[in-house]
Specification:
- The chain is an all-alpha fold and 152 residues long.
- It is built from six helices and no strands.
- It has a domain at 64-127.
- The chain has helices at residues 5-25, 46-59, 67-80, 85-92, 97-104, 109-125.
- This is Tyr recombinase domain-containing protein.
- It comes from Nocardioides bigeumensis.
Length: 152
């Protein structure tokens, strides 16, 4: 599994802490092969991890946060910041990109607006006219409204 540089740095810190705790525990140390262990090498109880998440949630003054929320937030942040869907799908361990698209395919209005700006810029770079006046078309909106969500 690919890891960010930050994750690698944090895991190195955990390894150093674990080596220190192993030396301190001496004969009491239980070798399990796990990365996250107690001060004598035993696996951490999953409930402790959930309690730590709850403490962090309260400190951040979040209404709700659980492991699913973190996973969904991570996927949404990656997609909103331009990480391709196949890459996000692979990171999440989905068997196909259709699962990712179904779960996270909603696009925020900001992303839609930016995507259309990218398209307009590409078209104008290709010499396609993006001016508001089109021969034979009257100015104004055909639906009778003065403006829409974009101020048009």
């Amino acid at each position: 599994m690919p890891l960010s540089e930050l994750a690698v740095a944090l895991l190195r810190q955990v390894r150093q802490r674990t080596a220190f705790e192993r030396r301190q525990a001496m004969d009491l140390w239980v070798e399990t092969g796990f990365v996250f262990v107690t001060d004598i090498g035993e696996p951490i109880d999953p409930r402790n991890a959930l309690r730590a998440l709850e403490v962090a949630r309260r400190k951040a003054v979040l209404k709700e946060a659980n492991l699913h929320t973190l996973r969904h937030s991570a996927a949404s942040v990656m997609l909103t910041n331009g990480v391709p869907i196949p890459v996000v799908s692979k990171i999440l361990g989905h068997s196909g990109i259709s699962i990712t698209v179904d779960a996270y395919g909603h696009v925020s209005p900001e992303v839609s607006h930016e995507a259309l700006n990218v398209l307009a810029e590409a078209l104008s770079a290709e010499g396609v006219s993006t001016s508001a006046s089109t021969p034979g078309v009257k100015e104004g909106r055909p639906d009778g409204f003065d403006s829409d969500e974009n101020g048009l």
